[in-house]
């Protein structure tokens, strides 16, 4: 009887500690849905942009990103000036990616999400790089890059000759709010 209880406990533990992917969305056994969480973040970021609320924007960025940047307030002001009009709609683009790494007891998950964002005057492309888990350095959890360009410039950010996200084929380390054009 004791063996049956131990086996049952092991199976239940494995189920709770593992995650599953349902319809391309990572959901853990307790119901945490990473994509839903990120969509809630983009809604709140858009609300903060529309309200021109610097403090609200800062709450979404990781502590390590905020500590590393000296001119973050200026970047937020530039973002507010760049967006023409009030954002009235957004749509998540396909092609988002998740990167998981595990090294002994340390675990890290990074997520890139892409959005089409619209105002009455202009269409934009938002790229968010987010760290959702970092057991070694919890200060890394949060957004570490918000790249914003006009929709027509979207493909230029991936061109290695432009040196926006890539220098040739090498990824450039970008953090904060980045408005390359």
Describe, in plain words, how this protein is organized in 3D:
By secondary structure, this protein is an alpha+beta fold. The chain has helices at about 1-15, 35-50, 55-60, 65-70, 70-80; strands at about 20, 25-30, 85-90, 95-105, 105-120, 125-135, 140-150, 165, 170, 175-180. Strands 3, 4, 5, 6, 7 and 10 form a six-stranded mixed beta sheet that branches. The chain has a two-stranded antiparallel sheet with strand order 1-2. A two-stranded antiparallel ribbon has the order 8-9. The longest helix has 18 residues, at about 35-50. About 20% of the residues are buried.
**Cα shape:** globular
Residue runs with pLDDT of under 50 for 5 or more positions: 19-32
The count of DSSP E runs of length 2 or more, i.e. the number of strands, is: 10
* Number of H- or I-type helical stretches: 5
What summary fits the major beta sheet? Answer: 6 strands, mixed
The average pLDDT value, as a whole number, equals: 83
How far do the termini sit from each other? Answer: 68 Å
The CATH topology of the largest domain turns out to be Nuclear Transport Factor 2, Chain: A
CATH class of the largest domain: Alpha Beta
Query: What count of structural domains?
Result: 2
Strand content: 25-35%
Order of helices and strands: HEEHHHHEEEEEEEE
What structural class results from the helix and strand content? alpha+beta
Keywords:
single chain, 181 residues, alpha+beta, Nuclear Transport Factor 2, Chain: A, 2 domains, six-stranded mixed β-sheet, two-stranded antiparallel sheet, 10 strands, globular
């Amino acid at each position: 009887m004791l063996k049956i209880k131990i086996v049952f406990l092991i199976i239940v533990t494995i189920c709770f500690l593992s995650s599953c992917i349902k319809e391309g969305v990572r959901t853990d056994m307790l119901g945490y849905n990473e994509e839903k969480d990120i969509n809630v973040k983009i809604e709140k970021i858009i609300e903060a942009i529309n309200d021109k609320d610097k403090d609200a924007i800062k709450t979404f960025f990781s502590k390590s990103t905020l500590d590393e940047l000296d001119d973050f307030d200026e970047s937020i002001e530039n973002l507010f000036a760049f967006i023409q009009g009030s954002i009235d709609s957004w749509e998540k683009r396909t092609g988002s990616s998740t990167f998981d790494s595990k090294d002994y007891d340390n675990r890290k998950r990074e997520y890139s999400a892409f959005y089409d964002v619209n105002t009455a005057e202009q269409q934009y492309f938002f790229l968010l790089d987010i760290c959702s888990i970092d057991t070694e350095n919890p200060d890394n959890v949060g957004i570490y890059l918000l790249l914003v360009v006009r929709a027509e410039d979207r493909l230029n950010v991936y061109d290695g000759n432009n040196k926006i996200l890539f220098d040739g084929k090498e990824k450039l380390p970008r953090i904060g709010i980045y408005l390359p054009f």
